[in-house]
Amino acid sequence: MPLRTVEKPGFLHLLKKMDPRYQPPSKHAMSRTHIPKLYDVTRQKVMRTLKTATNFAATTDMWSSHGMTPYMGYSVHFIDDDWTLQHIDLGTSFVPQDHTADNLKEAMGDMLEQWGLKASNQVCITTDSGANVIKAVNDLKWEHLSCFGHNLHLGITKSYSPTTHPEEHRAVSRSLGIAHQIVSKFNTSWKRKRDLRAAQVKSGKDPKSLISDCVTRWGSTQGMVKRLLDNEQEIRQVIANDRKISHLLPTWQDISVLEAINEVMEPLAELTDIMSGSKYVTISSLKAMLKKLEQDVLAPKTPDDDSNPDDLLSNKLRQNILDDLLPRYQSAAKMNILCVTSFLDPRFKVSYIIT
Question: Please, which domain of life does this record's source organism belong to (predicted)?
Answer without folding.
Answer: Eukaryota
